[in-house]
Amino acid sequence: MYKIVLERKMCTSCGTCEDTCPEFFELVDDGFSHIKGSKIGDVEEIEIKDADCVLDAAETCPVMCIHVYEDGEEIL
Ligand code: SF4
Predict the structure, then answer these.
(1) Cα distance between residue 43 and residue 50, in whole Å
(2) Is the pLDDT of residue 73 over 90?
(3) For 59, phi and psi rounded to 5 degrees?
(4) Nearest Cα residue to atom 6 of ligand 1
(5) Counted domains in the chain
(6) Host domain of residue 70
(7) Within the chain, what is the greatest distance between any pair of CA atoms?
(8) Tens digits of residue pLDDT in 11-55
(9) Pocket probe mutation, ligand 1, options 16, 38, 46, max atoms within 8 Å of Cβ
(10) CA dist., res. 57 & res. 52, Å (int)
């Protein structure tokens, strides 16, 4: 099981995560990234079964505001 955490206050609205992993990320009306299926807030999180493209999105986010946890341990 994976947990994705997005620190929206750090987001620079570059759009990389949306391009890399549109299944999970989208830029919304306030201009910042949002994890699809989560509640919009300063810090968003969601649990998912397979990390898939989320790992690529976390690696390529220029400000490293996407964090990925696997079984409770931060891996990115
Ligand atoms: S890649 Fe990072 S900085 Fe760029 S839109 Fe996504 S969360 Fe924001």
Answers:
(1) 21
(2) yes
(3) -70, -30
(4) 17
(5) 1
(6) 2-74
(7) 32
(8) 999 999 999 999 999 999 999 999 999 999 999 999 999 998 999
(9) 16
(10) 9
Q: What is the pLDDT of residue 52?
A: 87
b/e code 26-48 from CB counts within 10 Å (16+ = b): eeeeeebbbbeebeeeeebebeb
* 4 contacts 67 by C-beta, under 8 angstroms: yes
Q: How much is the pLDDT for 30?
A: 95
Q: What is the CATH number of the domain that holds 11?
A: 3.30.70.20
Q: Phi and psi dihedrals of 9, rounded to 5?
A: -65, -20
Residue 30 DSSP label: T
Q: State whether the beta carbon of 35 lies less than 6 angstroms from ligand 1.
A: no
Q: How sure is the predictor about 62, in pLDDT bands with cuts at 50, 70 and 90?
A: very high
